[in-house]
Amino acid sequence: MRYSQLFGKTTKSIPSDADSVNAKLLTQGGFIQKEISGVYNYLPLGLRVLTKIQNIVRQEMDKIGGQEILMPAMTSEDSWITTSRNGMEVLFHLKGQGDTNLVLNPTHEEVVTPLAQKYLFSYRDLPSAVYQIQNKFRNEARAKSGLLRGREFNMKDLYSFHTDEKDLDRYYEIVKKAYFEIYKRLGLGDITVLTFASGGAFSQFSHEFQTLNENGEDTIYLCKKCKIAINKEIIDTQKTCPECGNDKLETVKATEVGNIFKLRTKFSKAFNFYYLDKDGQKKIIEMGCYGFGPSRTMGTIVEICHDEKGIIWPESIAPYQIHLVGLDLHDDKIKSQVEKLYQDLLNKNIEVLFDDRIDVTAGVKFADADLIGIPTRLVISKRSLENGGIELKKRNEDKSEIISIDSLENTIYCIYG
RNA sequence: CUAUGUAUAGCUCAGUUUGGUAGAGCACGAGUUUUGGGAACUCGGGGUCGGAGGUUCAAGUCCUCUUACAUAGACCA
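Predict the joint structure of the above. Result:
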């Protein structure tokens, strides 16, 4: 992608309504643009990051037998009346044709349960798991912190259906592992901990995945040995590490990036969702639900991965792999070499953002590269060519090195191609 | 939702005290000079001062209402 044609621009001025590091840097870098409070547009750079996060999640869900579907954002209020959740404060209500009452789904148990009921009848059909990646709507009393707490936000929600509690328990552990694999791939593996939380109306406990960071909204109580924590809701009833019994828990700040629940039979009972077992006996279905917020995770990563100059994306979700900066582009000879390099990178299927602006000083281009935060920067200029080729610099390192154009074959091409 | 604050150019803001011709920087367009860490200069385009009502000869400025945004708290299946 040529920077000169990119829809979305970097800006020096700090948005006056940006209340957090992620809102500030993502807006300045041209990743997102606020529409209304808690609701954002994703510009090309931002959408590329979001899509990469979604794809990692998608791959891990597919690995554990999740089948991707897409449910509607909008539903009749009737299902919500069935489960007595129509009074939920965060529920958006709207009117359809003929004055019908509709809601924008803040979560999809009310949709997926009746849907699954149309296809799962027998123990032969179970277990089964479906998931979707979709936007949720929650009319939060107060939206805040950029992508961390919005009124419309992106979410992956997986729902599983089982013959009995034992099978639910089995699958629950499988999902837990898949979640850790996701955080590892996102570069958050070392700082994301399993956290015991209240099960709410569903069960005794649920589990949250909390990413440790100073700006986090949540306070959790961490056992450093086990990397397991307890959240605020249940610290009164559970004062020790659930794993090792350690009572010296550390108080730390964190951001919730995932939440898994054993729904048990709450929704299957509400919708009369039964299956027939081997003996032809009618039995209630056990359910689990597993949430993961790609947009919130994107914000969380920015909160953690940045410096005073801008964002420092992990390789796995950077909007592009290479930020190619061309300098001295008034010189036709240099320009043609830069253009050739750009084409070579494209031909190798390397994702490259090419700063091809002619009337912009080097300082501006470097500052923009730092702000946008692509992990690898290549500079090709009069100076670099005189020194033997291309300057390579990692966003998270201070030093740069000159590599010859020929050696790209063994470095950039074989790493990224 | 409660309390408080803010609203002026695409963005960041000054101007409100004491009512009297609508401003700056950035961004954008034309040009000259620059050319490795957010360059300099010249010229130019761009505004119903959030909205409605009121006071006044005169309102960005004062008053009333309203909407949006922000901050603290409450809330967070």
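The CA atoms of residues 109 and 267 of chain A lie 7 Å apart.
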